[in-house]
Specification:
Chain lengths: 286, 363
């Protein structure tokens, strides 16, 4: 449905308008600061990275993004820091803030483009479209969306023949307490896209994991970020977490670990992530 | 070689601050210089010419150097309110710390110890976690919710501590300190509960707020805070003589005709107001309220007519300098200022503790 919309009259109308107004094309922003890893990935995928003058701490892919001046964590942006890079556009993810900083940046006559889309394949397409429009690079945007759609075709084709969907528990390990992902989280969305089920349907967001609830939930697979696994101290340490060893996943040691930004970033690599996740879950099967 | 040793006179730390008045003037001068430097320095580079041109424009003089609106916005809307917020916050925290240390006749007393700061923190945490779910974020006064909740929390905590310490019409300072510890523990539990309830997003906001920052400074915040903090601070300053009498002991103060009940109630309520409103705007900024009064007492002795205003000036100076560091050290990003003050404050505090306990003057 969304694909139809993207190639449909709306986009064509936009393209026509842009082609008809050369002054708009001339005013394409040339010094862009990005706050949000997926947005940074999209700027690179559009081939417009030479316009980037700064990124936030979450923008770790591609690696060369880390070499750019860093304006700090996207939730605690500071107006003067961003303005010191003399941007003519701030591309900001939905989580970016605080609101005061964004207001101050707007007040200093730097346009702020908020890009907030749902955790879905259509959401990523909309994100690409929004970034391309903000950078006045509609042609590159069109090309990237075509590539993205083709990637999905490839993923969909590879995902067709499947057995019973495994029940997956996503474990977030930041500090000493482990948290697990319920509904309305990026982890929930990516698990479902990969043709699996989130083992938790009872609540939204993240909640601490208890030993007994882990046994009760009894997931077939445990999904974790490589960063989280490193925090815990590796595979063996994970299975020593109370309760986890007693689950179906624990008994057969079914564990999938993926880099956090790759797994949860919802950028243009989403079709690959989904395929990768689905394959790894298959390989983790006994 | 000989001339060099001749010039090197043994340093006398008190020579600069021979009297309280001189030290106050000295601190005021240092604060002015630091504040001017803080306005001139930042990640967004403004050359001296730009600053001069902006200043000239502000005075209504014609200049040939054009100033861009962005340069003006950075200086007037970002840096100026931020430096003023640092002055206000540092001053307020220093003053509240000096007041508490005076009231309790204990050099370790500070608003944090009495649960004021953590009470305010519970209010802010509640504002971050609970309120957005029930109150539309589009309300016109939504920015005021957080400071109001913080003041509410600070007042509740302070009132609870004060009530607990009141026995038979008298206030026991020892019980008050112990009650402060208990309220701090309760506040910790409440914040823990709120962070359990919070979503991942809210938890991260809570964490960053907890680290402290002056980055949210704008004229509106400054106006609201100024209206609360400046009158409360002035009222605290007027209690210097009473605090001096209190130094002699509660019984002596009573016989000398000091209305102890009133001094305590006033000092505690106003300190709660000051710390609560500052915490709501800037998060938790530790050690200023503890360190500033100590530095001032080292320089000019225990007379509260000098300690109270001196602590306000010294706190302001410390925070302006710390914020300059926070803004520029990792530019264009920024260090949380709470981390910076704690990193600098803790070693100093431990050194002070060592010095004092060696001298046997630690109450």
């Amino acid at each position: 449905m969304t694909r139809g919309l993207l190639h449909g009259p709306v986009l064509s109308a936009c393209l026509l308008c842009l082609a008809a107004i050369p002054s708009l094309a001339a005013s394409a922003p040339q010094r862009v600061v990005v706050a949000g890893s997926a947005l940074t990935e999209i700027v690179y995928a559009l081939g417009l990275e030479q316009r980037l003058v700064g990124v936030d701490t979450t923008s770790t892919f591609p690696e060369s993004a880390s070499a750019l001046p860093n304006v700090g964590y996207l939730r605690s942006l500071v107006a003067e820091g961003v303005l010191s890079l003399h941007p003519d556009l701030l591309l900001a993810a939905g989580e970016a803030g605080p609101p005061t900083a964004l207001k101050q940046i707007r007040a200093a006559q730097v346009p702020v483009e908020r890009v907030e889309t749902p955790y879905s394949r259509e959401g990523v397409a909309a994100k690409i479209q929004a970034v391309a429009r903000a950078l006045v690079a509609v042609e590159q945007g069109e090309a990237l969306i075509r590539r993205y759609a083709a990637d999905w075709q490839h993923t969909d084709a590879a995902l067709t023949a499947r057995g019973q969907a495994p029940r997956v528990l996503f474990v977030l390990a930041h500090g000493s307490t482990l948290q697990v992902a319920g509904r309305a989280t990026a982890a929930d969305a990516v698990i479902r896209l990969a043709g699996a089920l989130n083992a938790i349907t009872e609540f939204e967001g993240y909640r601490p994991l208890t030993a007994e609830s882990a046994v009760m939930i009894d997931p077939d697979v445990v999904l974790i970020t490589t960063q989280g696994l490193a925090t815990l101290g590796g595979n063996e340490a994970l299975w020593k977490v109370p309760g986890l060893a007693l689950t179906t996943a624990g008994k057969s040691r079914r564990l999938v670990a993926m880099e956090a930004n790759y797994l949860l970033g919802f950028g243009p690599r989403l079709p690959q992530v989904v395929l990768d996740l689905s394959r790894q879950m298959g390989e983790a099967a006994p | 070689m000989s001339s060099w040793t001749q010039a090197e006179e043994p340093a006398r730390p008190t020579s600069v601050f021979r009297s309280g008045h001189a030290s106050r003037a000295g601190l005021g001068l240092l604060l002015s210089i630091a504040a001017l430097a803080a306005v001139a320095v930042g990640p967004y580079s403004l050359k001296f010419d730009d600053l001069a041109a902006i200043a000239a424009q502000g005075l209504g003089l014609a200049t040939d150097a054009p100033v861009s609106r962005q340069q003006l916005a950075v200086l007037v809307d970002l840096r100026l309110p931020r430096v003023l917020l640092a002055v206000l916050t540092g001053g307020g925290l220093g003053l509240a710390g000096a007041m508490m240390q005076g009231l309790f006749r204990n050099p370790l007393a500070e608003p944090g110890l009495l649960g004021v700061a953590s009470g305010a923190a519970v209010g802010v945490a509640a504002a971050i976690v609970v309120l957005p779910r029930h109150i539309a974020p589009s309300l016109p006064f939504v920015e005021l919710l957080q400071p109001l909740c913080a003041f509410g929390g600070a007042l509740l905590a302070t009132a609870a501590v004060y009530r607990l310490a009141r026995q038979d019409g008298r206030t026991s300072l020892a019980i008050m300190l112990l009650a402060g510890i208990a309220i701090n523990a309760l506040a910790g539990a409440l914040i823990g509960f709120l962070s359990y309830l919070s979503s991942d997003d809210q938890l991260r906001n809570l964490t960053f707020w907890n680290l402290g920052s002056l980055g949210r400074a704008d004229w509106k915040t400054l106006a609201v805070l100024g209206l609360l903090v400046v009158p409360a601070g002035a009222a605290l300053l007027s209690q210097a003589a009473a605090l001096n009498v209190l130094l002699l002991g509660e019984a002596e103060a009573f016989h000398l005709g000091v209305d102890l009940k009133r001094v305590k109630a006033l000092g505690i309520t106003l300190s709660a107001l000051i710390v609560g409103s500052l915490v709501s705007a800037c998060g938790i900024i530790g050690f200023i309220s503890l360190v500033a009064p100590h530095l001032v007492r080292l320089a000019c002795g225990p007379d509260h007519r000098h300690v109270l205003p001196g602590s306000a000036l010294c706190g302001a100076l410390l925070l302006v300098l710390a914020d300059m560091g926070a803004r520029t050290l990792v530019a264009p990003a920024e260090l949380p200022i709470g981390i910076l003050t704690a990193l600098l404050g803790t070693p100093f505090f431990l050194w002070l503790l060592k010095q004092r306990s060696a001298g046997g003057s630690l109450a």
